[in-house]
Write a structure and sequence with these properties.
This protein has one domain: 3-Layer(aba) Sandwich (Rossmann fold), CATH 3.40.50. With 285 residues, it is an alpha/beta fold. 40% of the residues lie in helices and 13% in strands.
Length: 285
C-alpha cells in the first residue's frame, strides 16, 4: 500500500484539528497501520499529545524539529522521534515555526518545500499514513502542507461560530487546486453536544451541499479528551471505554475503508460552492 498523506486544516482556531489528528493517528496505529505524525503548528499541541511538556520543550530546543528540516529542505527521516506506541512516530514542532512564512518567502519553489522533505519517506513507503497538523491560518506554510498531501480532513466545531470562515477555507482550496493534488477527504463535526441546537444546525447546513463530503462519525464533547491531553495521552490510551475513544476508532475505520476504495489523486474541482455563495455557511447569512 502506498503512503497516504492527510492534513488537518481549518483557518478557524479551536476546531479540534490537533485533537483529531493525534487520536486518529493512534487509532490507525492500533489497527496495525504504520503512522507518522507531523506537527506543523507552532503551538506544538500534536507533540504535546504524546510527550510531556518537558520532553516537548527539549525536542523544540534540540535543533531537530520540522522547522529546521524545512529551513534546510532536509529529508524528514532524520527528524523522526519514536513514540512509546507501536507503529507510531512523530516529527516534532517548535515555536520557531512562527518565522516560517518569512523563511519560505526567500526560497525557490517555496510551495513545495515540505513535499520535498517528505519525498524520501514516501518513496520508501515506510508508513501507511502520514498525518500533518496545520496551524489555523492561510498562507505559504499551509499551501506547503496542502501541496504535500493527498487529502485534507476539515474538523468543524458544532458551535455558533463553527462554520464561520469555512467559505474562506474552500476558496483557499480552490485557489491552490492548480498545483496541489489535495482532495477534501471530508468534514468531521467535533465538540458535539446534542443537548444544544448547534450540532443539528451544523449538520443541516453541511447536508445542503452535495459537493461537501461529511464523515458519518462525529466527535462528542468528552471530558476524557481533556484529561487525556493533560496527561499527554491519546484518549484510548487514557480511557479505552470513553465515548470519544470509540468515536475515533470508528473514524479510523471510515478512513481505512475509504482509502481502500479510491485511487490517489481523484478529486472534485470545487468544494463548498453553495457555502461560498452564502457567505459563511450560516443560515440566513
Amino acid at each position: 500500500m502506498k503512503t497516504t498523506v492527510i492534513c488537518f486544516t481549518n483557518n478557524k482556531g479551536g476546531s479540534g484539528k490537533s485533537t483529531v489528528c493525534a487520536n486518529l493517528g493512534y487509532e490507525l496505529a492500533s489497527a496495525g497501520k504504520r503512522v507518522l505524525l507531523v506537527d506543523g503548528d507552532m503551538q506544538m499541541n500534536l507533540t504535546l499529545s504524546y510527550f510531556s511538556e518537558e520532553e516537548t520543550i527539549s525536542m523544540a530546543q534540540s535543533g531537530k524539529t520540522l522547522y529546521e528540516a524545512v529551513c534546510d529542505r532536509a529529508d524528514l527521516t532524520d527528524f523522526i522521534v519514536r513514540s512509546k506506541y507501536e507503529h507510531l512516530d512523530l516529527v516534532p514542532s517548535s515555536s520557531l515555526m512562527s518565522q516560517l512564512e518569512f523563511k519560505l518567502f526567500t526560497m525557490m519553489q517555496r510551495e513545495f518545500v515540505l513535499a520535498d522533505c517528505l519525498s524520501g519517506i514516501k518513496a520508501q513507503e515506510t508508513y501507511d499514513y502520514i498525518l500533518i497538523d496545520s496551524p489555523p491560518t492561510l498562507g505559504n506554510w499551509v499551501i506547503n502542507i496542502l501541496a504535500a498531501s493527498d487529502y485534507s480532513i476539515m474538523p468543524v466545531e458544532a458551535s455558533p461560530w463553527g462554520l464561520f470562515g469555512l467559505a474562506n477555507m474552500f476558496d483557499f482550496l480552490d485557489s491552490v487546486s492548480g498545483f496541489c493534488p489535495v482532495s477534501l477527504l471530508g468534514v468531521v463535526i467535533t465538540k458535539v453536544d446534542e443537548r444544544k441546537k448547534y450540532y443539528r444546525q451544523t449538520s443541516d447546513v453541511l447536508s445542503q451541499y452535495s459537493d461537501i463530503p461529511v464523515f458519518k462519525t462525529v466527535i462528542h464533547v468528552d471530558s476524557a479528551v481533556e484529561w487525556a491531553e493533560d496527561n499527554s495521552l491519546p484518549v484510548s490510551a487514557f480511557r479505552k471505554s470513553a465515548r470519544s475513544a470509540d468515536e475515533f476508532r470508528h473514524l479510523a475505520k471510515e478512513i481505512i475503508k475509504y482509502n481502500k476504495e479510491v485511487t490517489h489523486g481523484s478529486r472534485k474541482k470545487q468544494y463548498g460552492k453553495g457555502i461560498k455563495e452564502n457567505g459563511n455557511g450560516r443560515k440566513g447569512s
